[in-house]
Every structure is written in C-alpha cells, then in structure tokens.
Amino acid sequence: MNIFQASRQESIKKLIEFGKMGFYPLFDESWMLGLSKNNSPMSQKDQERAAGLLKRLTQHRTIERQKTVLFTMKETDRELVMKTLIKLVEGKILDETPMLH
Q1: Residue span of the structural domain in which 54 resides
Q2: CB distance 86 to 59 below 8 Å
Q3: Other C-beta atoms lying within 10 Å of the C-beta of residue 14
C-alpha cells in the first residue's frame, strides 16, 4: 500500500471519529442548517461524485487545508461531501452500538 493512500485513510478515519463525538470541524454551522432542509437521498451518480470529492479533500493532511478546499467547492458538491461524511459517521456509530439497530 502506498504511503499517501494510508494518510488519506487516516484522514477520513479522523473525520469520522470527530463526527462520532458530534464535532464536524470542516462544516460551517449554516451549512448544517441548509443540509437539514435538503434531505433528498443520494443517487448512484451522486455517490460516485462524492467519492471523488472526498478523495480530493483528503489529499490535504491538515484540517485547515481541507476546510479551504471545502469552502471553494460549489454548494452542491459541498452538500454531497457533508452527506457522505454524515452517513459514514452514522454507519460507524451503528456498527459500534448494535442495540441501536
């Protein structure tokens, strides 16, 4: 495995761990409110696009650089990234606490 792939994996894992604690360091509060209003499910095309956007985001190691990348994204792309990260956090929480199923 490539050293850069390992750092990308670690970056996503850290963001998921933060999310499990209710802390989303990359997201502005107003974005979260806007996301709650737009609660439509993601299509397969959206999921593929979100995977590419997450890859682009995790190319950067620091939270500040990742936040800068997220701020420069179009609103629709940003929402895809947010939905994907929230889904990953939700999945992790459900995996760790099966009594919530």
Answers
A1: 3-96
A2: no
A3: 13
pTM given for the model: 0.81
Asked whether residue 51 is assigned to any structural domain, the reply reads yes
Residue 31 lies in a domain: yes
Maximum Cα interatomic distance, the chain, rounded to a whole number of Å: 40
87 or 41: which carries more pLDDT confidence?
87
Residue-wise pLDDT tens digits, 23-35: 998 888 888 877 7
In a domain? residue 25: yes
Q: Is residue 101 part of a domain?
A: no
Residue pair 15/85 in contact (Cβ under 8 Å)? The answer is: yes
Contacts 24+ apart (CB under 8 A), 42-50: 42/80, 42/83, 42/84, 46/80, 47/84, 49/77, 49/80, 50/80, 50/81, 50/83, 50/84
